[in-house]
Amino acid sequence: MDILLDSFFQRALAGGIMIGLTAPLIGIFLVLRRLSMIGDTLSHVSIAGVALGMLINIYPLGMGLVFALAASFAIEKLRKEYKTYAELSIAIIMSAGIALATLFFSLGKGFNVSVSGYLFGNIYTLDKVDLMMVAGVTVITVLFVLLNYKEMFLLFFDEEAAAVSGLPIRFYNVAVTMLTALVISVSIKIVGALLVSSLVTIPVAASLRLAKSFKHSIILVVVCSELAVILGLTAAALFDLAAGASVVLLLIAFLLCTFLVKRKIRV
Amino acid sequence: MDTGFLNKAEQVLCHDPVISIEDLCFSYEGTRVIQGLNYVAQERDFVALAGSNGAGKSTLLKMIVGLLKPGSGRIRLFGTPVQEFRDWHRVGYVPQKSNFNPLFPATVREVVTSGLYNRGTMFRRIGATEHRKCNAALEALDIAALADRKIGQLSGGQQQRVFLARALVGNPELLILDEPTVGVDVETQESFFQLLTHLHQHHHLTFLMVTHDREMIESTMGKDPAHVAGKLKFYVKHTHAPMDCDVEDVSHGGGTR
User: Fold this and answer.
1) How far apart are CA B70 and CA B108, in angstroms?
2) pLDDT given at position B255
3) pLDDT over threshold 50, residue B10
4) Largest CB tally within 10 Å, which of A22, A145, B88, B176?
5) Between B251 and A128, whose confidence is greater?
6) What gap in Å lies between CA A211 and CA A105, rounded to an integer?
7) Residue A183 and residue A26 in contact, taking contact as beta carbons nearer than 8 Å
8) CB under 8 Å to A116, separation ≥6 — which residues?
């Protein structure tokens, strides 16, 4: 039990709780816009940035963030180029990210070990700077969603109606993509690049099944992901399990529960 | 109103113009879709816009609401060039039914209230006034009982009423409808048109509706279009009926069903 009092665990928990709030909050908008896979793409591009950062000795998470932001703009641009194939832009950028990451890995053979920390997540290496980054992104994201909640509802429900109401559609589209890049890139150290998109999508998948309204679905999505983060990280610390994997498996368990609950209500 | 042999300068209007289109052209990937269109819709017109696929109906609609830039020419809304127009609360919009994601977790109340959101309400909280307006619109369209249901669980006709309520909740002067009856059964369509007719006759509203429904057009607006431009046909019914509906709020429309 002592491990729960250690400062590295508490840092991990603080980081996890913040990501548990922001990732699904952005996720709900991405899923409703049928962009669930954007999380995977941005996280792979982030890894390329992290690898480059290690190669040229610049703060890796920061470099990952820059890469993710650039990728998010590239996706928006490609989305316009291939209007009816939104998923194509995501696939293209994903391949570019993986290719770049592989290239940088092969150039810097020495750092394979620390890269794996980003691929699979290593929440216990979260330092003060990382935590500050996560906190900054959390504040920005939560403020943005709180201030623009009703406009985002209209935009994601019916983009044309939002445009007719005179809302600045482009601003919101770019802002949401940028926020996604921010959230994804600071999350990779916590759950790992390979699992990051699960924090963005699975809580949403679970809450969409139970939600009675849009407001309700936002509350549910945050509750669900926070429960998974707190229980998952605690279990991982106590039983010496992989932190990211524990959180994600708990999320999947929650999702399965919603199927059972739903059936019970129906019968 | 026959404007056939009057040119636009001489055209006599008994009401103020709501939408004025001057020498409008638009090309899409090298093909001229709209060529030199001139048209004026005045207050209390009910304009039905018809034409085959590719005639430019949706394109025109998108230019009128500022989603697309004209290739050349001018569009004015209530006298203001559309690119400078800011009073979007004066315009209500009913989308194609198929345009929304039926699994979106939104209640009827949330959807109808969203009709009040615009540039002017950004960063503002929704308060008692908005809730009252929403309730009034729900009552008027006879969907108050559905307020807390999810939009995806409703029938096509009920969804149509929800979208009409959303368009009317802000008390607009111009209502734009984009093929609102596609995919809705005949009976529901009829009661929907009755509702629109009532709103047209007894309230201060101007309508622009894109539709494929020949029968509705011919029964309410006659066989001949008032204006033809390329493949676009404008059927118009103008009214001078007294705006005598006992309820001031335009979202009222329950008298006919």
Assistant:
1) 35
2) 38
3) no
4) A22
5) A128
6) 43
7) yes
8) none
Place of tokens 């010496």: A240
- Give dist(CA A221, CA B126) in Å, integer: 23
Angle formed by the axes of helices A169-191 and A112-120, to 10°? 120
Q: What is the DSSP letter of B150?
A: B
Q: Please tell me the CATH superfamily of domain A2-197, with its number.
A: ABC transporter involved in vitamin B12 uptake, BtuC (1.10.3470.10)
**pLDDT tens sequence across B181-227:** 777 778 778 888 888 888 888 888 999 999 887 777 888 788 888 88
**Nearest chain A Cα distance for residue B85, angstroms:** 9
- Per the CB < 8 Å rule, is A167 touching B91? no
Q: Would you list the domain boundaries of chain A? A: 2-197
B91 close contact with A: CB closer than 8 A: yes
Core vs surface per residue B96-117: b (16+ CB within 10 A) or e: bbeebeeebbbbbbbbbbbbbb
Task: Name the band, by pLDDT with cuts 50, 70 and 90, for residue B231.
Answer: confident
- Largest Cα separation within chain A, whole Å, is 60
Nearest-Cα distance to chain A for B60, in Å, is 14
Check CB contact under 8 Å for A164 and B67.
yes
Quote the CA–CA distance of A100 and A97 in Å, as a whole number.
5
CA distance B230 to chain A (A): 26
A163·B103 Cβ contact <8 A: no
If one counts every other C-beta atom within 10 angstroms of the C-beta of residue B214, the result is 10
Closest CA to B196 of B223, B228, B219, B224: B219
CB nearest to B111's CB, from A148, A157, A165: A157
Q: Do B95 and A213 lie within an 8 Å CB cutoff?
A: no
pLDDT tens readout for residues B58-104? 889 889 988 888 989 999 999 999 988 988 889 998 887 666 788 89
Confidence of residue B9 (pLDDT cuts 50, 70, 90): very low
Other Cβ atoms closer than 10 A to B127 = 8
Q: What percentage of chain B has pLDDT greater than the value 90? A: 32
Integer CA distances (angstroms), B77 to B95, B104, B134, B174, B240, in order: 19, 32, 26, 9, 21
**What would the pLDDT profile of A146-203 be if each residue is shown by its tens digit?**
999 999 999 999 888 898 888 888 889 889 988 999 999 888 888 888 888 889 999 9
Cβ distance of A217 and B91 shorter than 8 Å: no
Beta bridge partners of B39: B21
Pick from A181, A38, A63, A173: nearest CA to A118: A63
Q: What is the pLDDT of residue A217?
A: 94
Shortest distance between the Cα of A93 and any Cα of chain B, in A, equals: 26
